Amino acid sequence: MAKSGSTLTGMQLSVMVVLRVAIGWLLLYEGIGRTMNSNWSLTSYLSGSRGFLAEHFKSLATHTNLMYVFGAISEWGLILIGMGLVFGLFSRFFSLAGLVFVLIGYLSHPPFFGLNYTSIVQGSYLIVNELFILFFLFLMFILFPTSHLVGLDRLIFGKK
Description:
Number of strands: 0
Number of domains: 1
Radius of gyration: 17 Å
Number of helices: 7
Structural class: mainly alpha
Largest sheet: none
Strand content: under 5%
Shape: globular
Helix content: 55-70%
Distance between the termini: 22 Å
């Protein structure tokens, strides 16, 4: 196990940067897709919520003006988070924002036994799904930032 304060090897850094950029690209593309897809709706997504917080999310979905604002935040938030990770710009901040996004998604549509969703999701999961994994990837990006070594943060804040 690496000692506290130790640096990453070249291979470790390369893998973490590729992972950061890949997750950034995934979110950037998802955000662009949502802005271009007139059929996507945060209201519809939250209306299909299940689990212990379902009533809270369904209640939010009834507020049209709120859903308009949250929908725009969802679409453009994904784009900005994705761009931040791809370019290594304020990646800790954008990783925290991504962590919040996926936590909300996970809590609104938890992959727990006995919950049936009307919309088709990406497979059948029990507890661990892509949002669960993304949560821990964002946590890793916060704890082990790479943008100060490979990214625009290096140009802005200098190499540490």
